[in-house]
Amino acid sequence: MANPSVFTVSQLNREAKRLLAQHFLTVQVQGEISNLSLPASGHAYFTLKDAQAQVRCAMFKGQQSTLRFKPANGLQVLVSAQVSLYEPRGDYQLVVERMEAAGEGALRQAFEQLKVKLSAEGLFDSDRKQVLPLIPARIGVITSPSGAAIRDILTVLKRRFPAIPVVIYPVAVQGEAAQFEISAALAAANRDAAVDLVILARGGGSLEDLWAFNEERVARAIAASRLPVIVGVGHETDVTIADFVADLRAPTPSAAAEHAVPEQAAWLYAFTDAERRLTRLMQLKLSSSRQQLAWREKALQAQHPGEKLHRNAQRLDELERRLAHAQQRRLSQQRQHWLQIEARLKQAQPTAALERYRNRLDFLEQRLAAAMNRKLADLAQRQAAAGATLHAVSPLATLQRGYAIVQRHGETAIIKSAADLAVGDWLTTRLASGQVVSEVKRLTRDVA
User: Fold this and answer.
1) Per-residue exposure over 46-72, b if at least 16 CB sit within 10 Å of its own CB, e if not
2) Contact (CB, 8 A) for 64 and 44
3) Phi, psi (5° rounding) for residue 390?
4) What is the distance between the alpha carbons of residues 348 and 131, in angstroms, rounded to a whole number?
5) Which helix (H) or strand (E) holds 408?
6) What is the pLDDT of residues 278-289, one digit of tens each?
7) SS3 227
8) Measured in Å, how far apart are the chain's first and last C-alpha atoms?
9) Is the pLDDT of residue 229 over 90?
């Protein structure tokens, strides 16, 4: 029969492991990392030591997701671990559940490691920075609702451009929950689309106080934002990872507000100056248009059918006078010719022939007079018809019949179809007497 006080090696190691687990539960141990091993399995094996002693440690892959930094030999760390024993070798070890760098130097180490990582991914590149809106329609501010930063920001915004509304996204700005609340607020601002610019800010503090702005989660939330982000954290000497990722880094919360909006007075002056210059240009344009209109009216009057009718009537009168004079001269010549013939006939005593010629002359005189009268009547009739035709096609005659000439206000082209117009156009309507300026309120187009 076996002695009950005798253990096998396996039994001894198993019992020792159980006793260690029951006695120590979870312990916190501080020391320096050495003999670090990172196999392909994703687990980490290392020795934790101080000046007098050392202990083996194991940190499995699942627990490493909470690390803020990359472990390395020589780092001082603080671990939370279970005291255990590796039974196959009988080695006493710590199974690490959490690891933090010890002291501010460790935070600096974690800062530099994350900075190098994100820079290598291109999150700090200038070509991915978004341009800030010239005048934001609405500004979102992510910060503590009770800190000095929100008061400073609101004071500056009210002084520089009070017309721009502000949406406040209240968050914790330090502590374990801060990184989650900040990233959630950035996501909400992008999702709601209630603002077009975001200010992420908090007042000054120690490196540990500002650590939420050095978290990778916050950095990636800023990089993923479709809205431009201005970061103003701490004082001018404080630099965070968020500053590098932001579209614009401001040294303080007040400076962030300064960058977010322009100076309202300067814009009002610019608008007033632009209005003054625009008014002057409009006056010059109107003056030039009036001169052109006067010149075109004068040119149109020179080409008016009435003017042509007057000129043609004068020409017709002149031709009528010349015709009458030519006829009189011709009749005088004929009379002189017949008198010469009569004289010669009298000398030869041709009485019978002379009588015939006299009768012939009277007959021809009558025919000539009748032809002259007909010619004059025909010319007068043609003159009257030409005058009536010219008067019928005259724009003034058309206007006298109740028609109108429609042009777009300030232009010379004549509007012939409603399709050439749009609601809101201003029109100039020329009547037989005067003009009318009107605005198009409704259009009705003929159906083909």
Assistant:
1) bbbeeeeeebebbbeeebbeeebbebe
2) yes
3) -60, -40
4) 125
5) strand 405-408
6) 888 888 888 888
7) coil
8) 119
9) yes
Q: Among 25-39, 127-141, 431-445, whose mean pLDDT is lowest?
A: 431-445
Residue 434, SS3 per DSSP: coil
From the list 401, 381, 380, the residue with the least C-alpha distance to 391 is: 401
The pTM for the full model equals 0.46
Question: Residue 133, class by beta-carbon neighbours within 10 Å (0-12 exposed, 13-18 middle, 19+ buried)?
Answer: middle
Q: Is 254 helix (H, G, I), strand (E, B) or coil?
A: helix
Partners of residue 179 on adjacent β-strands: none
Q: Which residue has the tokens 């020179």?
A: 302
User: Alpha-carbon torsion 188, 192, 194, 195, what sign?
Assistant: positive
Q: What distances in angstroms separate CA 236 from CA 148, 204, 208, 219, 288, one per listed residue? A: 16, 9, 17, 19, 58
Q: What is the rounded CA–CA span in Å between residue 364 and residue 245?
A: 118
- The pLDDT tens digits for 73-95 are 888 888 889 888 888 887 888 99
Cα-to-chain-centroid distance, residue 158: 26
SS3 label, residue 150? helix
Query: Is 209:109 a contact under the CB 8 Å cutoff?
Result: no
- Which of helix, strand or coil describes residue 108? helix
What is the residue whose two structure tokens read 């309120």?
Answer: 441
Query: How many CA atoms lie less than 13 Å away from 315 in the CB half-sphere?
Result: 9
Give the span between the Cα atoms of 45 and 42, in whole angstroms. Answer: 10
- pLDDT computed for residue 164 by the predictor: 92
The better pLDDT of the pair 88, 134 is held by 134
Q: Which token pair is 48?
A: 């934790």
Q: 229: closest CA among 270, 274, 169?
A: 169
Give how far the C-alpha of residue 46 lies from the chain's centroid of Cα atoms, to the nearest Å: 58
Rg (CA), the chain: 54
CB pairs under 8 A, 24+ apart, for 408-415? 409/437, 410/289, 412/293, 412/296
d(CA 321, CA 405): 40
- For tokens 């509007």, the residue is 415
Residues in contact with 187: Cβ distance below 8 Å, sequence separation at least 6, in sequence order:
221
96 closest CA partner among 49, 121, 64, 74: 64
What pLDDT score does 313 carry? 73
Where do the H-state alpha helices sit in 349-393?
Answer: 351-393
